[in-house]
Amino acid sequence: MIGAFVSSEVKKWTRDPFMVFMLIYPLLFALVGRYLIPYVAESSDFMLEAFSDIVLVALLLFCPAIYGAVVGFSILDDRDDNILISVQVTPLDVHQFLSVRLVLASFMTFATCLFIIWFTGLVTMTTAEAATISLMIALGTPVVGFLINSLSSNKVEGFAIMKGFGTASLFPLVGLFFFDVKELLFSVVPGFWPAKMIGIIFRGEGIHFLSYNQYLWIGLVYIALATFFVFGVFRRKLNL
Question: Residue 89 pLDDT > 80, yes or no?
């Protein structure tokens, strides 16, 4: 049944031209990072090598916002059609119904981030580091999806919330310019933690406020708590 649902969900996303654009949009970031940014840097004498970590973070952090928006809008459609209510009388539990699409969107974020890291080559890292960072970023995808549905009741409001996420995505970038306790002011955004991990891979240990492993484990706990919190808000709003 879950396999059939995944197939149905993919067909649902690919029937809407806007959703198709949203699905492939993050892949364009790989082309921008591989060709356009180096070209602009060379033309303007910009020292890309000194800021490659910041450029890579900027490209990666839009991925969970976009794929989170895709699943968020999909859930908004289901709310409009009262599908979430109908699912409660089927063998598929509503939480499984939501989990399958959130896992699917998170996997797409993970795969896209992994591809961007490999294809752009902006920051040299091992396969394990690339996979870990991509996973950390992907775990923020459900947070976006749940927040869109917790703070909006239709797609118009959802678009406004999505724009807000775009602005919030700048927080981890700003945080990369701080190397003491003040950087934690920007840690409210889940992408802050993998952004700092990229900074350490690029610039080395001892520069940022915490170590690579501390950003990893504290980040995992924080993202998990943030996911449970926004899911609780989402459940209360929809009375699930």
Answer: no
Number of H-type helices and E-type strands within the chain? 13, 0
Contacts (Cβ under 8 Å, ≥6 apart) of 40: 46
What pLDDT shows up at residue 8? Answer: 65
SS (H, E, C) 153-203: CCHHHHHHHHHHHHHHCHHHHHHCCCCCHHHHHHCCCCCHHHHHHHHHHHH
Residue type, 1: M
Query: Is 93 within 8 Å of 106 (Cβ atoms)?
Result: no
Q: Is the pLDDT of residue 88 over 60?
A: no
Are 75 and 145 in contact by the 8 Å Cβ rule? The answer is yes
Q: Where are the beta strands (DSSP E) in 103-201?
A: none
Query: In this structure, is the dihedral angle defined by the CA atoms of residues 200, 202, 206 and 207, taken in order, positive or negative?
Result: negative
* Residue 48: predicted pLDDT: 79
Nearest CA-CA partner of 173 in 65, 55, 47, 66: 55
Residue ranges of domains in the chain? 2-238
Q: What is the pLDDT of residue 43?
A: 83
Backbone angles phi, psi at 81, to 5 degrees: -95, 5
- Cβ atoms of 202 and 133 within 8 Å: the answer is no
The stretch 206-227 carries a mean pLDDT of: 93
